[in-house]
Amino acid sequence: MLVRRLPCRTRFRESSFCFRDGSLVSLRELTHVRQTVLQPTIYHKNMKRVVYVTGDVAGAEESPVYAIFKMNRALDHLRLPAGYTMARYNSVQPMSTDHYSMKWDGEWQITLEVFRDLGLAFAVVLVLVYVLVVGWFRSFIVPLVIMAPIPLTLVGILPAHAMLGAFFTATSMIGFIAGAGIIVRNSIILVDFIELRRKQGMPLDEAVIDAGAVRFRPMLLTAAAVVVGASVILSDPIFQGSALSLIAGEVASTVLSRLAVPVLYCVVQKRTSSTDNHASTPRHVGMSPMPQQVSS
User: Fold this and answer.
1) With a threshold of 0.70, does the pTM exceed it?
2) % the chain with pLDDT above 70
3) Most exposed of 46, 212, 215, 220 (fewest Cβ within 10 Å)?
């Protein structure tokens, strides 16, 4: 007789079935209960047997970077059987399962890939900016002077993260890259004004001083606009790093680039002019006196 799970018109107890005719039968009469141990699940990844150990980061340190560093120090003190070592991998899969190995995966690998891709993108951006500035100023040295304040933003970015207790995340890197374009723009208007004054006949030292005084207001207004715009997302837990990078980086670069760019430009131009003058100076070549013609 087939047992079917059908709604029964009569009231019946739990753990029982109802037949078509309405009679009840206990579940014990149809099943046999036996306790056993569940066999362990074997996991594979890329055709290799693996064991997954998962965990979440909690507490004051929300970034997985610091947690991974602490666990690596703990693994350094791990005692293994004689002759075995614990190899650790970050972005590649272990090639063999003959020895103990650990692959850091999950959010740690995502973090490494994000910073790697952002670093490559930033390098490409720097090359493109250099090419554009070379085409405008027709010089291979002046663009280096213009792009020199970009690393100076770290003078403001890193202390700002430390003082506010914020982590340098991927959004912080994005803010650092975005601020590089604003910094280059400030340096361009400064160097362009210096060359404009030099074309008008002003000496190099006076042109550098005049450009620093006249172009400081546009640079200050640009920095103020960036600070006000980025302060809106300063309290956001995700984009806080981007706001800190934009605000602190722009403030530091505005103060330092106003000093660094004119000084570097002045030094480069003086060395270039001295080299050109040295190359254009005629060399004294010793010549033997012409024999005099004796007339008879």
Assistant:
1) no
2) 82
3) 46
